[in-house]
Design goal:
The protein is an alpha+beta fold. It is 34% helix and 25% strand. The strands form 5 sheets. A 7-stranded antiparallel sheet has the order 3-2-1-7-6-5-4. Strands 19, 20, 21, 22, 25 and 26 form a 6-stranded mixed sheet that branches. A 5-stranded antiparallel sheet has the order 9-8-12-11-10, with helices on both faces.
Length: 738
């Protein structure tokens, strides 16, 4: 690369032969610094004259600066400051920084421009940069070659013209401070109470105080009733520690108007490190703070709206998952505490708008308060139209909102001392009472209360939310009541289709019928116990496919058919075959499963013969007196109605299995509502049932058997009906005699 303005063949700066000549002949002081050791490794003649003959190279950069008498503009030595020389030695380029020169009279007798600058107390202009990019990696002659970790420093004396220019810049700076729109102030911490000693015109424009009114006074004169004491304390602590501080706080102008003031205060130290002044910069940021407050307010409102929607959704979800009215009300109360209330009560009327309500559910932040809340409901007359808040809401009047309740119970209930005592124990603060409505009728009231000390005051927005929640609760309660009515009717119809268990000598019988959660529809499960005229005992359990009135009707018909054919004394296989033919012929039902068993009277061996046939039904279980469990799963056949035929079957029909039962044996028949549960393995549930029965204590009666089986095997959520029949065979000789 050639120099742009040189002649051909001219020597280039940067070669090993010419760089020392350029440096030594320069009229300014030039240093070469080893960046790795932060040492001056080369100094030209002008630089040597600054330090005299006492310095031997290489030498630490800070030590060289002290030997040369260099200080910052405040008079501090180079070694105690972050000087321009130190910056260059750290690899940071310096484009031009002033330093002062002192005590030059003790140096050499030669007079150079640098010495004259030193002797006159003038300034030197420092410029430095790294030499790592020198051509060909060359270093000055006489220096050991290395990794090029070198830097070059030039110290140029400021001429008189330059010094004058610098003074003019200082004057312009001072004028700028006076003319700027930013408020400046200076205090004197050496005086009592750190008073103001100077302010610029913008300070007076910002605060309304003139120069003469503030000089000599502490800046706290800007404080007022809404000034944040914590911010003032933080400023005080920073000044005490002599540290910079910035705070935004409310200040007051001379006319009493408030504004948001951003205050930045910095300490000023002299050359000896002593605190001289504090400089303050004030800026009116009222508009910025207001915009920020509005933004935060909007965010808070948006978050509150989201929280209310979440609460509304949670309360709705909780109620819709309820099984009955009481469960729905309890779920509602628990979902509102503590998100919306510290105490919650739900009161329902037996009939809309009439009578004394029943406190169905309560919830409290502290469990002990739930009993107190129930007691307060018992003591107060909440009859519709009674004059109480709850009574007026139950009578159809507007919702009640009391933002601030009396602190004393005697003021709230002056004529009811007992209620006043309970009131005091609950520490009530604010209350809302809203109607629980559905289809234009008031079904009850929802009461929400906050407590001291953590409770808040309710407002109109809370009332709107509570009214919305109560409206949804009303629909849930009304639907649950309708469901309960339908459920009760279905259960009544279902049970009317089932027989009463007869008393049979020598046999103990226990039966259970459980209606699933969809029990507002009657199902097709049934059981039957027949004391047959020939002395045998007939047992039947079945399940018609479906869960509606048609299935229930088919179940009733099928049960009647089984009874009729069983009464004739036919064998179990024949009874099921004839039922299948009749069902298909009359189209009574699509399909059904069934087990029919016939237990013969005691024979000469003291045992009974058990014969049974199974049409696609879960296998019955027989528990012997010795604790041995037998699954009766032999000779299974298709479900009734599963295989369509025309006329009588050509084959032998359903077969039956037989085994002998000793006295003390227990037979268990059941429907698949106990074993076929959605999401669970049917085989595992069947094994659970068998283990439960096998673990029964010897001599357990049928009532004990059915109770323990249901306790261990009943699904948590019973979706399908369950029929369960347990029969224990005693050893009475006349077991089946009339």
């Amino acid at each position: 690369m050639e120099d742009g303005g040189g002649t051909a063949g001219a020597p280039r700066v940067g070669t090993a032969a010419n760089l020392p000549q350029v440096m030594d002949g320069a009229p300014v002081a030039i240093l070469v610094i080893d960046l790795e050791g932060r040492q001056v490794v080369h100094a030209n003649a002008a630089a040597v004259e600054l330090t005299g003959d006492s310095v031997r190279l290489p030498v630490d950069i800070d030590d060289w600066g002290d030997a040369a008498g260099l200080t910052d503009l405040g008079g501090r030595r180079m070694s105690s400051t972050r000087s321009p020389l130190s910056l260059v030695a750290s690899g940071v380029p310096v484009a031009g920084e002033p330093v002062a020169v002192h005590d030059a009279a003790r140096r050499g007798s030669g007079v150079t421009c640098v010495q004259r600058a030193a002797r006159e107390g003038r300034l030197l202009w420092v410029t430095g940069f790294s030499l790592s990019g020198m051509a060909d990696g060359v270093v000055p002659a006489g220096l050991a070659p290395g990794t090029n970790a070198r830097a070059l420093v030039a110290l140029l004396p400021l001429s008189g013209t330059e010094h004058a220019d610098r003074r003019r810049l200082e004057i312009l700076r001072d004028r700028a401070v006076l003319a700027t729109d930013m408020s400046f102030s200076i205090t004197d911490p050496q005086q009592d109470d750190n008073p103001l000693i100077w302010v610029n015109p913008s300070f007076s424009k910002l605060t309304g105080y003139g120069y003469e009114e503030v000089v000599g006074r502490n800046c706290r004169l800007l404080q007022g009733p809404n000034t944040d004491a914590a911010a003032v304390q933080r400023i005080h602590e920073a000044l005490r520690r002599r540290e910079p501080v910035t705070e935004v706080l409310v200040n007051y102008r001379r006319d009493g108007t408030a504004f948001w003031n951003q205050v930045a205060i910095s300490p000023v130290f002299d050359g000896d490190g002593d605190l001289v002044n504090f400089v303050g910069v004030q800026n009116d940021v009222t508009e910025r703070v207001i915009v920020e407050q509005e933004r935060r307010s909007a965010l808070a409102e948006a978050e509150e709206a989201r929280s209310q929607l979440r609460l509304l959704a949670e309360a709705t979800t909780q109620m819709t998952g309820a099984l009955d009215v009481t469960d729905a009300c309890q779920r509602l109360a628990r979902s509102l505490v503590p998100e919306l209330a510290d105490l919650c009560a739900v009161d329902l009327l037996e009939r809309p708008g009439v009578g004394v309500p029943q406190r169905i559910a309560v919830a409290a932040r502290e469990p002990a308060d739930e009993a107190r809340l129930r007691e307060l409901g018992r003591l107060r007359n909440y009859r519709a139209g009674s004059g109480s808040d709850t009574g007026s809401v139950l009578a159809g009047e507007l919702p009640v909102l009391v933002p601030e309740l009396p602190e004393r119970g005697a003021d709230r209930y002056p004529d009811d001392p007992a209620a006043a005592v309970v009131y005091d124990s609950l520490r009530l603060r604010s209350v809302m009472v809203v109607p629980v409505r559905a289809r234009g009728r008031v079904l009850g009231a929802l009461t929400l209360v906050t407590q001291h000390p953590y409770g808040r005051r309710y407002g109109s927005r809370d009332l709107h939310l509570a009214t919305d929640i109560a409206g949804r609760a009303g629909l849930t309660v009304d639907n649950a009541r309708l469901y309960e009515v339908e459920h009760a009717a279905a259960v009544t119809l279902q049970r009317s289709l089932l027989p009463a268990v007869p008393e049979v000598a020598g046999v103990q019988v226990a039966a259970r019928y459980l209606v699933g959660v969809d029990g507002n529809q009657v199902g097709g499960d049934w059981y039957d116990v027949l004391n047959l005229p020939d002395g045998a005992l007939g047992l039947a359990v079945g399940d018609v496919v479906g869960h509606d009135l048609r299935a229930a009707a088919a179940m009733g018909q099928l049960r009647g058919v089984v009874r009729s054919y069983a009464w004739d004394g036919g064998p179990p296989g024949s009874v099921l075959d004839r039922c299948d033919q009749l069902v298909q012929g009359l189209e009574m039902a699509a399909m059904a499963t069934a087990v029919y068993a016939r237990i013969e009277p005691l024979d000469h061996t003291g045992e009974r013969l058990l014969r049974y046939a199974n049409a696609g039904h879960p296998a019955p279980l027989l528990l012997g007196p010795d604790g041995k469990l037998v699954r009766l799963d032999e000779h299974s056949s298709p479900m009734i109605g599963a295989v369509r035929s025309h006329g009588r079957p050509a084959g032998p029909g359903r077969t039956e299995a037989a085994l002998r039962c000793r006295p003390g044996s227990t037979l268990l028949l059941y429907t698949d509502g106990l074993t076929d549960v959605a999401g669970e393995d049917a085989d595992e549930r069947t094994e659970l049932l068998e283990r439960t029965l096998a673990a029964m204590a010897p001599g357990s009666g049928p009532e004990t058997v059915v109770e323990q089986v249901l306790e261990a095997c009943l699904p948590q959520r019973l979706r399908d009906d369950v029929a369960l029949l347990a029969v224990r065979l005693d050893d009475q000789p006349a077991a089946f005699e009339r």
